[in-house]
Amino acid sequence: MKQIEKKESNSIMNTTIKTLGELKASGYKYKSIKTELRENLINSLKSGIATFPGIHGYELTVIPQLERAILSKHNINLLGLRGQGKTRIARLMVQLLDEYIPVVAGSELNDDPLMPISRFAIDLINKEGDNTPIQWLHREERFFEKLATPDVTIADLIGDIDPIKAANLKLNYADERVLHFGMIPRANRCIFVINELPDLQARIQVALFNILEEGDIQIRGFKLRIPLDLQFVFTANPEDYTNRGSIVTPLKDRIGSQILTHYSVDINTAKKITNQEASKLELRLFNVYVPELAKDIIEQIAFEARKSEYVDYKSGVSARMSITAYENLVSTAERRALLNGETKTTIRFSDLMGMIPSITGKVELVYEGEQEGSSFVANHLISQATKTLFTAYFPKIQKLKKKEEDTPYADIISWFLEGNTIELFDDSNDKAHARDLNSIQPLKDLISKYQPNVSVKDLSFFMEFVLWALVDLKQLSKKRSDDRIVFNDGIDSLIDGL
Q1: C-alpha span between 25 and 9 (Å, rounded)
Q2: For the chain, how far is it from start to end, CA to CA, in angstroms?
Q3: 445 and 479, same structural domain?
Q4: Residue 452 within a domain
Q5: DSSP state, 112?
Q6: Residue at a domain's end among 239, 260, 281
Q7: For the chain, what is the total number of helices (H) and then of strands (E)?
Q8: Which residues, 6+ apart, have CB-to-CB distance to 335 below 8 Å?
Q9: Is 114 part of a structural domain of the chain?
Q10: What is the pLDDT of residues 336-391, one digit of tens each?
Q11: Which of 65, 81, 199, 378 pairs as cysteine with 359 (C-beta 3.0–4.6 A)?
Q12: Which residues touch 390 (CB under 8 Å, ≥6 apart)?
């Protein structure tokens, strides 16, 4: 950490330099952006500083590969399904740049004062010499990003002739000063990201060949030997290779490292990502308590979706689904608190139904899923997640058992078989909700026996969790009314159906 503080203070001191002469006297030396990234990464690794903070689950897979690519001074292609943090990784690379770098004042191409490449900067330095004015560019301004779409043109990325400039300067079109540079030349000495590279037309991809290899660009017949200094980062989705386009082979050959990203492999890592991205929810006026089990269910829904027969696995299930589902879950409880005039509340299991709009908009369905409908699939995923986690907390229900064998859930089922029902209202206050659940004594006994360490704050959620799980496991039934959910025994439900 001390090394970084020293580097930052030196950079701030250097920003007081205003002319080329002062810059030379300071001992400044030119270095390429790839060298800059490499040296700062080496310093971070030596100091034990996290190189990509806030990226969870990639510590043993993606991040080591990224570090090796940066040390090798490679351009990088991040290949993975949606919602795997590819763009975020590219943006975090900015933190490995020097805080400030000097540029020739007024230069379109961020010319280094000791290594000018543009006609403007070269002419200015020849004219002004050591009095050439210097500006300082902060690292946050050294990130360029372009989404590859079919309408992107070579003029957008590389440049074109500017007739207005030619008219104003009274120049003919043979003079290179009439050129208008595109995004890539203007990103000289910067990180340039092209998202969804396969969506870029093949002829546009071809235009990148020389830039990646030799640094040459060609605009309308002008062959400019401009040694552009860029760190390219591309992102691509494997699905794009068949559905929309592909990366042309010679371009892939010129990209130094292709790194595969992936989804979180366990619930705890997924929860870290969701909590980090949804942290702004803590700023709400209401205190909404979210049990850890509720957070586990949210993440388990995404895991279930990625292996569901209704969901297109090739499209992937973005981590954004869990984030937006969490936000909707908290908002469901917040709305209820507003209606009841409460200043705090606790998430209920039934609040998970408020996440359905976040799920339906985030999954691509296969034919079977389309036939069933997105709402059915969302409810199915919640049901599957509930059943999966239920066995982690409570004994498994055996489908086939001898008549004399009893199950841990026999007392609960008997309570309902005696004609008892329970109605849980959507907008009841927390006290009424807890009172209704506590009326089922066998339910309380079950949790006391198998989850004795459940806190008072989590108790109502666990009790409702058991009821929903028993419904999903065909031990009880429930039906939805306008403003409530009614739980009863499966036999009553069957008779009503008949």
Answers
A1: 18
A2: 72
A3: yes
A4: yes
A5: B
A6: 260
A7: 24, 16
A8: none
A9: no
A10: 999 998 888 999 999 999 999 999 988 999 999 899 999 999 999 999 999 999 99
A11: 378
A12: 465, 466, 469, 472, 473
Q: Residues of 154-193 as b/e, b for ≥16 C-beta within 10 angstroms? A: beebbbbbbeeebeeeeeeeeeeebbbbbbbbbbbbbbbb
How far apart are alpha carbons 22 and 17 in whole angstroms? 6
Q: What are the structure tokens assigned to 279, written together?
A: 């942290």
Which pTM does this prediction carry? 0.85
Pairing of strands 344-346, 287-289: parallel
Q: What is the CATH number of the domain that holds 422?
A: 1.10.10
Residues 180 and 285 in one domain: no
| Residue 302 Cα to chain centre, angstroms | 14
The 8-class DSSP code of residue 257 comes to E
Residue 170: predicted pLDDT: 62
398, 406 Cβ separation under 8 angstroms: no
Q: Which of 230, 260, 290 is the last residue of a domain?
A: 260
> What single string gives the DSSP state of each residue in 132-149?
-BEEEEEGGGSEEEEE--
Token pair in block for residue 143: 């990130």
Q: What angle do CA 204, 205, 211 make, to 5 degrees?
A: 100
The domain of 389 spans: 263-393
User: Which residue matches tokens 């409530």?
Assistant: 484
Give the β-pairing of 191-195 and 179-181. Answer: unpaired
Supply φ then ψ for residue 210, to 5 degrees. -70, -30
Nearest to 322 by CA among 346, 348, 343, 294: 294
Phi-psi region of 309 (alpha: psi -120 to 50; beta: other; left: phi over 0): alpha
For the beta carbon of residue 249, count every other beta carbon within 10 angstroms: 7
- Separation CA 193–CA 189 (nearest Å): 13
381-411 pLDDT per residue, tens = 999 999 999 999 999 887 645 554 578 999 9
What letters, b where the CB count within 10 A reaches 16 and e where it falls short, cover 18-30?
A: bbbbbbeeeebee
Regarding whether 177 and 151 lie in a shared domain, the answer is yes
Neighbouring residues of 351: CB distance < 8 A, sequence distance ≥ 6: 294, 329, 332, 333, 336
109 in a domain, yes or no? no
